[in-house]
Amino acid sequence: MGGAKYAAEFELPDMAHAVLVQSTIAAGKILGFDLIAAKAMPGVLVIITPDNAEKLHNLKPAQQKVTYPLLQNADIKFNGQHVAVVVADTFERATAAAAAVRVHYRATKAVTTMDQAFSESVTPKNFSNGRAKPDSQIGETSPILPSGTLRVEQIYTTPIEHHNPMEPHATIAHWSGEQLTVWTATQGISGAQKALSSLFGLKPQNVTVICPYVGGGFGSKGNTWPPAVLAAMATRQVNRPVKLVVTREQMFTSNGYRPRTVQRIKLAANPDGRLLSVRHDVKTQTSMPEVGEFAEPSALITRMLYSAPSIGTSHRLVQVNHGLPTYMRGPGESSGAFAIESAMDEMAAALKIDPIDFRLRNYAERDPTADLPFASKALRECYAQGAAAFGWEKRNPAPRSMRDGHMLVGMGMATSSYPTNRMPASASVHLTADGSALVRSGTQDIGTGTYTTLAQVAADELGLPLGKVRTQLGDSRLPPAPVSGGSMTSASVVPAVQAAAQGVKAQLFALAISHGGFQWQSVSPDVLTLIDSAVDGPAGRIGIGQLFTLAKIKQLNATAGAQPAPDANDYSKHAFGAQFVEVRVDPDLGIVRVSRWVGAFDCGRVLNAKTARSQLIGGIIYGMGMALFEETRIDRNTGRITNANISDYLVAVNADVPEIETIIVDSIDPISNPLGTKGIGELPMVGAAPAIANAVYHATGTRIRDLPIRIEQLLA
Amino acid sequence: MQNFSITSPSNLPAAAAAGQNSDTAFIAGGTDMMQLLKNNVITPSKLIDLEKLSLSEIKSENGVLRLGAMATMADVAAHPVVRQNWPAISRALLLSASPQVRNMGTMGGNLLQRTRCLYFRDTGFACNKRAPGSGCPAIPGDSRDLAILGTSPHCIATHPSDLPVALMALDAELELLTPEGTTRRMSLSKFYRLPGTTPHIESNLEAGQIITAVILADQAIGRLSTYLKVRDRTSFAFALVSAAVALDIEDGLIKNARVALGGVGTMPWRVHQVELALCGQKPSDRVFELATLRIGEGAQTTEMNAFKVKLAQRTVVRALQAISA
Question: Per the record's keyword annotation, is Phosphoprotein included, yes or no (chain A) (predicted)?
Answer without folding.
Answer: no
